[in-house]
Specification:
The chain folds into 2 domains: about 140 residues, Orthogonal Bundle (Globin-like); about 60 residues, no CATH class. About 25% of the residues are buried. It is about 50% helix and about 0% strand. By secondary structure, it is an all-alpha fold. Helix 11 packs across helix 12.
């Protein structure tokens, strides 16, 4: 089996430094979502006493519809809106159903089990966003289904994203192999002017950049210059990078760059 055949490979792959993947992309796209919904409606729903009655008259293409909805919500193509009618159509499927909390909770639980069976990514970042949407969306569906409910019309399909900037590569996994600092570094001579492009930016690895993107971009001269005093404090105490302190000569170069005016 090669990486393209492995449903879990997308969670193991390194994200591109300049591209934050959507939840749709990180899950594996439409094929992965359809695999999950087919498992859910084919394996779990028919045998479940709480959910089976709700879907007893389910249309044959219902798994495809739900996969299209989730794909659009998670940042993929607008397939649900274009093929099935958008938000109002989804809301209409819950009106008057009088769903109960135990049914809502079972739906979330079994969909999470189906995601496991479908080999969805298991990294904390993706699962946090996935479960957050299931909880949010299912509670709105529960509310909309109650007698006397009046859901607001013409709402857009929600577009869900990462939770609290917890994106792929935003942290160093405890299970990842330690990443060594660069073997070679173009450190300036004692009298040589220190520049960001030549001497500072190369000291920050791609992983360092990803782990700090929630705050600022370590490959941006402007942003590093703005935060330089705080960065230097962390470099001195060895708390940055998070997987090991810089050697003293590199810390000294960063300090020289700051003291000399933070040249680009």
């Amino acid at each position: 089996m090669n990486a393209s055949d492995d449903p879990g490979a997308r969670a193991k792959a390194e994200p591109q430094a300049d591209h934050e993947p959507t939840l749709f992309e990180w899950a594996g796209g439409s094929p992965a979502l359809l695999r999950m919904t087919r498992i859910f409606y084919g394996k779990y729903v028919p045998e479940d006493p709480l959910l089976a009655p709700l879907f007893a008259e389910m249309a044959p293409d219902h798994p495809e519809r739900v996969a299209a909805w989730l794909g659009e919500v998670f940042g993929g193509p607008r397939s649900y809106s274009e093929r099935f009618g958008g938000y109002d159509r989804m809301v209409s499927r819950h009106i008057g159903k009088a769903l109960r909390e135990e049914q809502r909770a079972r739906w979330v639980h079994l969909l999470c089990k189906s995601a496991d069976d479908a080999h969805f990514p298991t990294d904390p970042e993706w699962r946090a966003a996935f479960v957050a949407y299931l909880e949010w969306g299912s509670r709105i569906a529960l509310e909309n289904s109650q007698p006397g409910a009046h859901p607001p019309p013409n709402m857009p399909v929600p577009r869900w994203s990462w939770v609290s900037d917890a994106t792929p590569g935003s942290r160093v996994s405890a299970l990842a192999k330690p990443t060594a600092q660069q073997e070679e570094a173009d450190l300036p001579g004692p009298e040589e002017p220190v520049s960001f492009a030549q001497h500072i930016k190369p000291l920050f690895r791609e992983g360092d950049r990803r782990s700090m993107r929630f705050a600022f971009d370590l490959w941006s001269h402007e942003e590093v210059a703005t935060h330089a005093p705080a960065i230097l404090d962390r470099l001195r105490t060895g708390t940055m990078p998070c997987d090991g302190a810089w050697p003293k000569d590199r810390v000294a170069v960063f300090e020289r760059w700051l003291d000399s005016g933070k040249a680009a």
